[in-house]
Each structure stands twice: as structure tokens, then as C-alpha cells.
Amino acid sequence: MPPRWTFCSLRTRADFDRVFDGGRRFFRRGLGFYYRLTSLEVFRYGISTPRRFGIAVERNKFRRRVREALRLSGERSAG
């Protein structure tokens, strides 16, 4: 049975700095996704969206949808 990850989004500048230093990142079409796996089976992630992605409302809506998709994928893997 694969491990069940706990998903935690990055909230503070210090969280982002720790992931920048010791985490991984990938970019697709200007969208940045930063993540770090910890020894406690915690998947820490942050999403970076550029201004060309849309106005702030659209960028925030996109980030909320990605966070919800990750949350739901974690619940499904538990079953």
C-alpha cells in the first residue's frame, strides 16, 4: 500500500524560502509549482501564477482549485 501523504500549502515567506532552498520545482506555461517532501510524509507545496495568467481573482480561483484537487486526491488514496 503506498504511503498516504498529508498535503500542506505554503503560507508564509519562510515556508517558501525553505522549499526554494531544499525542495523541487517545475514550470509549465509560466505556472510555477514548488514542493518538498518531508520525512513525516507531508507534501508541502506552493503555486506561483504570473500576472499574464489573468487578474488576481482568476489566479486565486485557479490556486484554490489546484489545492482542492490535491486534497481530494489524498482522500481517495486512503481508501
Core attributes:
79 residues; alpha+beta; four-stranded mixed beta sheet; 4 strands; 29% strand
Can you describe what's shown?
With 79 residues, the chain is α+β, with helices and mostly antiparallel strands. It is globular and about 35 Å long. The protein is built from two helices and four strands, in the order βαβββα. The longest helix is centred in the C-terminal third of the chain and has 23 residues, at 56-78. The chain has helices at residues 13-22, 56-78, and strands at 6-9, 24-28, 31-37, 42-48.
What sort of overall outline do the alpha carbons produce when their principal axes are compared? Answer: globular
Helix-strand sequence: EHEEEH
Unreliable runs: none
Overall pLDDT confidence: 78
Strand count, sense and closure of the main sheet?
A: 4 strands, mixed
Determine Rg (CA atoms, Å): 13 Å
Helix content: 40-55%
Relative strand content: 25-35%
Query: Total number of β-strand segments?
Result: 4
What structural class do helix, strand and pairing data support? alpha+beta
Strands side by side in the biggest sheet: 1-4-3-2
Number of helices: 2
State the separation between the terminal residues, measured CA to CA.
10 Å
